[in-house]
Amino acid sequence: MHSWQPLTLKDQIVQQLRQQMIDGHLEPGQRIVESALAAKLGLGNTAVREALYQLEDQGFVTRIANKGTFVTKFSPVEIDQIFRVRCELECLAVDLIRERLPELDLLSLREPVSGMQTTAQATDLDAFYRHDLEFHLGIWRLAGNPFLVQALEKLTVPLFAFFIMRNTRATAEDLRRNASLHAAILEALAKGEDARALLCASFTVWRRDIDLWSQPT
Description:
This protein is mainly alpha-helical. The chain contains nine helices and three strands. It has helices at about 10-25, 35-40, 45-55, 75-100, 105-120, 125-140, 145-165, 170-190, 195-215; strands at about 30, 60-65, 70. A three-stranded antiparallel beta sheet has the order 1-3-2. Strand 2 (about 60-65) and strand 3 form a beta hairpin. Helix 2 (about 35-40) packs across helix 3, helix 4 crosses helix 6 and helix 4 runs antiparallel to helix 9 (about 195-215). The longest helix has 25 residues, at about 75-100. It is globular and about 55 Å long.
């Protein structure tokens, strides 16, 4: 039985800043000045610095040498470039998974798909895309190539964070369709079938949604 653990100060700051980014109070590209943020929150610099490190790991902020920390932002050209590379690398990942079947256990992919289906019903966008990312992280790791995982994490995790910040208009039906597509990817992998087409379809939907939901209302 797991005991409930209260949130640490760092976790509270992370949650607060993530929500501000998702709500649009901190815009993509906006600079975050550590000392000013600490003063605004009435906290020490150390707690804020640790929270920003965690947000960097999650892809929500980017540190640029000699310039500072910024809310993650991508231009349309950069998004296209990342998608092209990601598509090739993740298709390679599913090929590697097929090579490792039937010895490979795909159980780790079932929980995030179930989480996507549940959070789709509640239209909980932040939780939905956390499960979505966990599904893809699972695919990368099951490929059994740590260099592939490293490359995909560096490319894709910040883009997921950017997508969460920009996607404020998805409906429950949009999310249900997305969850069904991921369930189909899992089913294809479990059967040893070629999941490339389904995977590319999910990328196409995601790319379209970034364009659609980033437009001003």
